[in-house]
Amino acid sequence: MATERTSDQWFTILRTSAELRFGSERAAVLTDELRAMAEAVARVLSEPLNFHAESPVDFPIERVDRS
What integer is the mean pLDDT of 36-55? Predict the structure, then answer.
């Protein structure tokens, strides 16, 4: 039987692991970045797809493949 965890529990696990590996300051930065990415993904998935509209998330120019 799988256990269900909240996003806060997952971020606590990720932050604790990152603190052990990288230290508390770097772990805080990584956790904040992951939380922002998760919020962006949730926002994209909750909105209907409109391929003619502007992207709901800002992508760095070097990562956008327009081919």
Answer: 79
